[in-house]
Amino acid sequence: ASHSKKAQQQFEDHVRFVDEVDECHNITGANEYLLRAETLDLVSYKKFHADVLGECEQVKSITTMAVMDSPKDER
């Protein structure tokens, strides 16, 4: 994956106006970005995964985590 400023900007431009993406964070560690995305159900998520993230050439891998419960959420 390219770590260039241009590649980062292209990715950010790609997700900026995607309805499912509520948050996009450039982070440290093994992954470049953390997205918080909300979909109606798993069928909708699969479409988002394939048609939005999967079609973005800057995305080389996708790790999905689903929130099961939020004992504390002060957002």
Task: Report on the architecture of this protein.
With 75 residues, the chain is an alpha+beta fold. The chain is built from two helices and two strands; from the N terminus they run αββα. The chain has a domain at 5-53: Lrp/AsnC effector binding domain/regulation of amino acid metabolism (RAM) domain (Alpha-Beta Plaits, 2-Layer Sandwich), CATH 3.30.70. It has helices at 5-16, 42-53, and strands spanning 21-26, 33-37. A two-stranded antiparallel sheet has the order 1-2. A hairpin with a 6-residue loop joins β1 (21-26) and β2. The longest helix is centred in the N-terminal third of the chain and has 12 residues, at 5-16. The relative contact order is 0.17. The model has no long low-confidence stretch (mean pLDDT 94).
Helix-strand category: alpha+beta
| Gross geometry | globular
**Based on DSSP secondary structure assignment, what is the total number of beta strands?**
2
Q: Unreliable segments (pLDDT under 50, ≥5 consecutive)?
A: none
**CATH architecture label name of the domain at 5-53:** 2-Layer Sandwich
Just give the CATH class of the domain at 5-53. Alpha Beta
Biggest sheet strand order reads 1-2
Characterize the main sheet.
2 strands, antiparallel
Order of helices and strands: HEEH
The CATH topology of the domain at 5-53 comes to Alpha-Beta Plaits
In CATH, the homologous superfamily of the domain at 5-53 goes by the name Lrp/AsnC effector binding domain/regulation of amino acid metabolism (RAM) domain
* Helical proportion, percent range: 25-40%
Distance between the termini: 32 Å
SS summary, helix count:
2
Mean pLDDT: 94
CA radius of gyration is: 13 Å
